[in-house]
Specification:
single chain, 103 residues, mainly alpha, 55% helix, 0% strand, extended
Length: 103
């Protein structure tokens, strides 16, 4: 006989508390370990990419990203560096330097 699947998941409030514990600077190593364990047991809501709900979430997430990363020239440059598009000096990285001509 096979093992039964664990169908329990961490609730939203508990997951929020666990996230706060992980971000905190005063929590002990064991507290952070327990919080991480709790977060691995959360059920992620999977959206159908073609649904209106997914489009609304994408627009919201895009606005949040742009507000954070495009607010200043420095933050935009840092975001492009994190993505590997530009170097620390602001030059395009190799994959983005050349444009291939199509026949």
């Amino acid at each position: 006989m096979g093992m039964a699947k664990n169908r329990e998941a961490t609730g939203k409030k508990a997951a929020s508390a666990a996230s706060k514990t992980l971000r905190g600077t005063t929590a002990s190593k064991s507290a952070k370990s327990a919080a991480g364990s709790a977060l691995t047991q959360t059920r992620a809501k999977v959206l159908d990419p073609s649904s209106p709900e997914a489009a609304v979430k994408f627009r919201k997430d895009s606005k949040t990203y742009m507000a954070k990363h495009a607010a200043t020239k420095a933050s935009a440059l840092a975001a492009l560096q994190d993505l590997g598009v530009v170097t620390k000096t602001g030059r395009l990285t190799k994959p983005y330097r050349t444009v291939k001509k199509t026949a």
